[in-house]
Design brief:
There is one protein chain. This protein has two domains: about 1-265, Aldolase class I (TIM Barrel), CATH 3.20.20.70; about 280-350, Alpha-Beta Complex (Type Iii Antifreeze Protein Isoform Hplc 12), CATH 3.90.1210. The strands form two sheets. Strands 1, 2, 3, 4, 5, 6, 7, 8 and 9 form a nine-stranded parallel sheet that branches. Strands 10-11 form a two-stranded antiparallel sheet. The protein contains 13 helices and eleven strands. The protein starts with a helix and ends with a helix. α2 (about 25-40) runs parallel beside α5 (about 85-100) and α10 packs parallel to α11 (about 250-265). It has helices at about 1-10, 25-40, 50-55, 75-85, 85-100, 110-120, 135-140, 155-170, 195-205, 215-225, 250-265, 320, 345-350; strands spanning about 15-20, 45-50, 105-110, 125, 145-150, 175-180, 205-210, 230-235, 250, 285-290, 305-310. The protein is an alpha/beta fold.
Length: about 350
């Protein structure tokens, strides 16, 4: 995904909208999400490429039942059957992305899905947090030479390192890691966004955030900590799905995109001294003024000279040097002090200023 690396190399933030199950079983909903995501200012639309049979088995035993949380009462097979994006839709979704200027990205869950996406012309792969430990799948994806975006939810340092090394073993160094908390929705106490900086230091690859928390606060904080990719689930307002409860509306998503752009502006580059906008206000800084009429030969002191606004006189740092010197001329109340108004001793000592 050349546009991804071009954007982050220019200090931008690449924003991925995750459709996931939020098409609600309708291709038209999926295409509408593409159009609205494009209008929101996102860079990429992501889907997932799997069937219930490719991700689990149709088994009723206790190990395959979900208890508690958002999907309480589901059997794994049934959940994935409801949430999957049919393979026959995916070419149409990709074409709609291209029509509206969006990059297209998908998460494969087995080798057959990778092969399918290769034939589709997918130029990047996303590894889901739950597949972080599937090293053979990661190696196979990475062997295609495409950009690898790897979510690290639940991952130990060693597990993340193994996934990165799996890519390196097959010669793929186009890796982006996403900090992630794999709770749905994610609890703020468990986000640990400070990992973003640590991951950047330790793995020396671009770091982003796959965010399942409410609102856009986590995304904003992540960008301020150096995240260069943000992924967020999006939904249509009136469509219910397995993922809609923790997904962001398109309107909120658009606001988040704008907020991210503004945060990047605020962070800016390292800069000392007045900005272009501050230059006009320099004249309102403090300087030394006569606050009483001062006669020739009268001594300068804190009663007749003060540091006040504006900045047309000597800088306040010179007060201790001129304190006790004599005026060489009459100085009227409200006059900014100049070097030539003061004794020769002061002028001599401060010629370099």
């Amino acid at each position: 995904m050349s546009r991804l690396f071009e954007k982050i190399s220019n200090n931008g933030v690449y924003v991925i909208a995750e459709m996931s199950a939020n098409h609600g079983g309708s291709l038209e909903n999926a295409l509408e999400i593409v159009r609205e995501v494009a209008a929101s200012g996102a860079d990429c639309l992501k889907i997932q490429t799997y069937t219930a049979d490719s991700i689990t088995i149709n088994c009723d035993s206790e190990e395959f039942q979900i208890h508690g949380g958002l999907w309480d009462g589901y059997k794994l097979y049934d959940l994935y059957a409801d949430a999957s994006t049919p393979y026959e839709w995916q070419k149409k979704i990709k074409e709609e992305c291209e029509k509206y200027g969006l990059d297209f990205l998908s998460t494969p869950f087995d080798k057959e899905a990778v092969d399918f996406l290769e034939n589709l012309g997918c130029d990047a792969y996303k590894i889901a947090s739950f597949e972080l430990v599937d090293i053979p799948l990661i190696e196979y994806c990475a062997s295609k030479g495409k950009t690898m975006i790897i979510s690290c939810g639940m991952g130990t340092f060693e597990e993340i390192e193994e996934a990165v090394n799996a890519c390196y073993r097959v010669g793929n160094h186009q890796i982006i890691l996403l900090k992630c908390c794999s709770e749905y929705p994610a609890n703020w106490d468990n986000m640990h966004l400070t990992n973003i900086r640590d991951m950047s230091d330790k793995f020396n690859v671009p770091i982003g955030l796959s965010d399942h928390s409410a609102g856009c606060i986590a995304a904003i904080v992540a960008v301020s900590l150096g995240a260069c990719v943000i992924e967020k689930h999006v939904k249509l307002e009136n469509v219910k799905s397995a993922d809609s409860e923790f997904s962001m509306s398109i309107t909120e998503f658009g606001d988040m995109v704008n907020n991210i752009k503004n945060v990047k502006k605020m962070i800016g580059d390292i800069h000392y001294g007045p900005t272009e906008g501050e230059t006009n206000n320099m004249k309102f800084r403090r300087s030394l003024f006569a606050v009483k009429d001062i006669k020739t030969g009268e001594k300068i002191n804190s009663n007749n000279v003060r540091s006040i606004r504006p900045a047309q006189g000597l800088e306040p740092k010179y007060f201790h040097q001129i304190n006790g010197m004599v005026a060489l001329q009459d100085i009227s109340y409200g006059t900014p002090l100049r070097m030539e108004m003061l004794g020769a001793e002061f002028e001599e000592n401060n010629k370099e200023d």
